Amino acid sequence: MKIRIAIALIALTTIVDNTTRAQTHHHDHGAEHVDATPVQRPKMFLDKSSRIVWYQLNRLDNERLLLVERTTDDGKYAPVYTAILTRAGMSPQYREEALAGLIALNKSDAATELLSALETIDADDRQQQRTGRQLTKMLLGQPMLVLHAKVDALGTATESDNKMLRSAGHAGLIVAGDLEAAWQRASTTGPGKLDWLAAVSLLPKPEHRSQLRQTIVGLLDASQTVDVRRAAIRALISVA
Questions:
Q1: C-alpha angle 210-116-143 in degrees, rounded to nearest 5
Q2: What is the pTM (predicted TM-score) of this model?
Q3: What pLDDT digit, counting tens, does each position of 69-86 carry?
Q4: At what angle do helices 179-187 and 190-200 cross, to 10 degrees?
């Protein structure tokens, strides 16, 4: 009798163990399934007011933002492209795609769209500063002749309330070959000189920076403000 009971208990234990393992396997498999579920495309209402559209876009992280539908055959998608172009942490390939989309939608050009994007950058936010430098790099990467055709817009940018845009404007004038215009706009005021000096580190090529050495050294003169002299020292570090 005792032997029969022992055999029954062993059999019952085996059944329970097998059931538990099966349930655990099923649970683990389900967890893997959940983890592997792709992020769903967000449902957006792009026909609403600009404020509502931007509210929706600003709630999305970068991964979900990139899943938002966008085409260049309807102006309602412009905010989506703008969000991608100006979003912190976005990879260059997506910024380039967004820039191309805005150019197509607005029937404009790269310099115009990038200057417009730079105007939205918060120059006091560290992440936004990084984004601004990336956008400026895209701007200054345009051919010299293209930038030369935009000297009026670049000059206007040097007078913006946004200091990131002002420096980008100065850098654009320098790359466009209009060094004199950039310096004339900067030399009349202390803040203008600071914007011009901040532009030096934005310049993409050593030859662009090295040609400014003499002017930068001149700003180390005791007649300049302490802020200007300090900015000149920082600018010299980036001069080849």
A1: 40
A2: 0.80
A3: 999 999 999 999 999 999
A4: 140
Is the separation of the CB atoms in 173 and 181 below 8 Å?
yes
| Cα 41 off chain centre by | 22
**pLDDT 10s digits, 172-225:** 999 999 999 999 999 988 899 999 999 999 999 999 999 999 999 999 999 999
Domain range list for the chain: 145-240
CA distance readout (Å), 26 to 31, 44, 49, 62, 139 = 9, 35, 47, 33, 54
